[in-house]
Amino acid sequence: MSMHPSVRQDPALFREWLQLHAGVVWKIARAFTQTPADQEDLTQEILLQVWSAMPRFEGKAKVSTWIYRIALNTALVWQRKERKRSNQIRLLEIEDLPGSTNEPFLAHDPELVEALYAAIRRLARIEGAPLSGAQCQSEPRTSPAQWH
Per the structure, how many domains does the chain have? Predict the structure, then answer.
């Protein structure tokens, strides 16, 4: 195995490193993901980061340590991105609303209207653009005549 201070992006060397150190990459990917698809994605991202960083490998640490650090840092960034995605509240789908049917929206159903207003208030907080106080705190308008 080559340990010279400056390593080019050598496909043969990359394959050699991958054969020797694939276990640590897979272990980290498994530890930071919950599904096989995410594990594959994270593994690919780790390998891409190792490949991209090869020219900066200086040989000051063992290859195994260097790959481990890249894998761990990549996984931590992945985890932060996943948390952001999972913290986003998905927009309510009409099927999820109480009293939902395939019939047209009925504005006189107070439970349905309140659920929609609650979703709108949450969305405003997520987007960081709060509705005006009057819009957020007003009583829901339950009939079309009140909407204007």
Answer: 2
